[in-house]
Amino acid sequence: MDIIFMLSAILVFYSLFHFFNLLYHHRRNQTCYLLDYVCFKPSDDRKLSTELCGDIVHRNKNLGLKEHKFLLKVIVNSGIGEDTYGPRNIIAGREEMPTLEDGVEEMDECFFATLDELFGKSGFSAKDIDVLVVNVSMFSPAPCLAARIVNHYKMREDIKTYNLSGMGCSASVISIDLVQNIFKTKKKTMALVLTSESIGPNWYSGNDKSMMLGNCLFRSGGCSILLSNDQALKDRAKMSLKCLVRTHIGANDEAHHCALQKEDDNGYLGFHLSKDLPKAAALAFAANLQRLAPRILPMKQLAIYIARKIHQSSKHANPNPNFKSVVDHFCLHTGGSAVIEGVGRSLGLTKYDLEPARMTLHRFGNTSASSLWYVLGYMEAKKRLMKNDRVLMISFGAGFKCNSCLCEVMRDLDSGNVWEDCIEDYPPETLVNPFMDKYRWINEA
Ligand SMILES: CC(C)(COP(=O)(O)OP(=O)(O)OC[C@H]1O[C@@H](n2cnc3c(N)ncnc32)[C@H](O)[C@@H]1OP(=O)(O)O)[C@@H](O)C(=O)NCCC(=O)NCCSC(=O)CC(=O)O
């Protein structure tokens, strides 16, 4: 078939689809405003410096010289700085015997601190909340964490609660998706999304490298996010959601198994991160972009993208569309340096584009599903987010999933937020770990 004819047909189809889609969603009251969000900053006594990480590694009697070398090498090379936070039981040396209370307290500390601040600064109260979604992947007590929030804040009896567990690092976008779908069914609704990860009860004490990696990357963090579809609150909103795309490539066995909780050969429970994870992330990302592109790209860009797709195997090594024409800021999950660099390469992003994710990895580590909100906070604290700017949030998570959403900034944003006391220090002159000298022998050994 003539390529020009095929291209024209596809373009006409997408235009019509997009038009009717907009009309449909307008009718269904799709508006989803992000009113405000607060990221958690644990107290200074929870800081995990490289030296303290070294001590934790040394007290694990299951590790030999080979494992020590591996861990210290990854810690020093990971792009993670000296000021990230860990859970209290691990800092206190009880990583091998966590109690239920350790897990509960870690979540309470994060959620109550961020919610108190969010209610305080937004002027809304717990009684205003109609929908509550909590996502914490690796800790699911009964009654659930959402019920603990309802109990603590004495929320209304008609509140709708949802507790998502096991959904991995892309879960906060899933929570937003759930909220926007609920918004379509009811006007003037207020929703809270609470996103975090449980680190304390999930420390791995064995000697399998792919499971030890999680101890190096994952750090304490969390975020509370206030959303509404009430048009009257439009002027108070920071951002509005334009489109959200979820991709799940779990049918692919290799991708499904690259990030999962399991027991090692000696029975130690932990979270396995395969060396193939960046490959699975790239696959899920490509599938996500393929569905995102027609929804956000202008006609010309879309035509170039489709043409490249048709000729993919022959000419273009990177067939991804030029999202920079419609996206001003890229808010990337801080999965690890390899994940950030991989996304940067496939989208053709600059050092400036990747700075928020790299700096967030340095200051807060991989805080799992909440990491996107620290990255957004960095952009805001750096006064990068101006009215009408578009922010593309991209997250990856076990399953394997890639979930993305495009948001529009509603007004110039300049809150100091969780970055307030350190934003002036970023980006630092070097990201090289200060203990590099001390541990240089590791790289040379
Ligand atoms: C771990 C790294 C920071 C290490 O970077 P380096 O610069 O040190 O270089 P490198 O890649 O050569 O790795 C150093 C050594 O670690 C080994 N190595 C790397 N990844 C490994 C893995 N998954 N399992 C076992 N070993 C691994 C390498 O073979 C090498 O060993 P040797 O020295 O013997 O050759 C990076 O590779 C990285 O960012 N990887 C991706 C991390 C990741 O999977 N993140 C997603 C988290 S999950 C998530 O966020 C979502 C979710 O859970 O839902």
Automatic annotation (TrEMBL):
It comes from the Eukaryota. SUPFAM superfamilies: Thiolase-like. Signal peptide: none annotated. GO terms for biological process: fatty acid biosynthetic process. Residues 327-408 form the Beta-ketoacyl-[acyl-carrier-protein] synthase III C-terminal domain. The chain crosses the membrane at residues 6-24. The keyword S-adenosyl-L-methionine does not apply. Keywords: Acyltransferase, Membrane, Transferase, Transmembrane, Transmembrane helix. GO terms for cellular component: membrane. It holds the Pfam family FAE1_CUT1_RppA. Its EC number is 2.3.1.-. Pathway: Lipid metabolism; fatty acid biosynthesis. The active site is at 169, 248, 329, 333, 362, 366. Residues 25-310 form the FAE domain. GO terms for molecular function: acyltransferase activity, transferring groups other than amino-acyl groups. CDD domains: CHS_like. Belongs to the thiolase-like superfamily. Chalcone/stilbene synthases family. This is 3-ketoacyl-CoA synthase. The gene is LOC120252745.
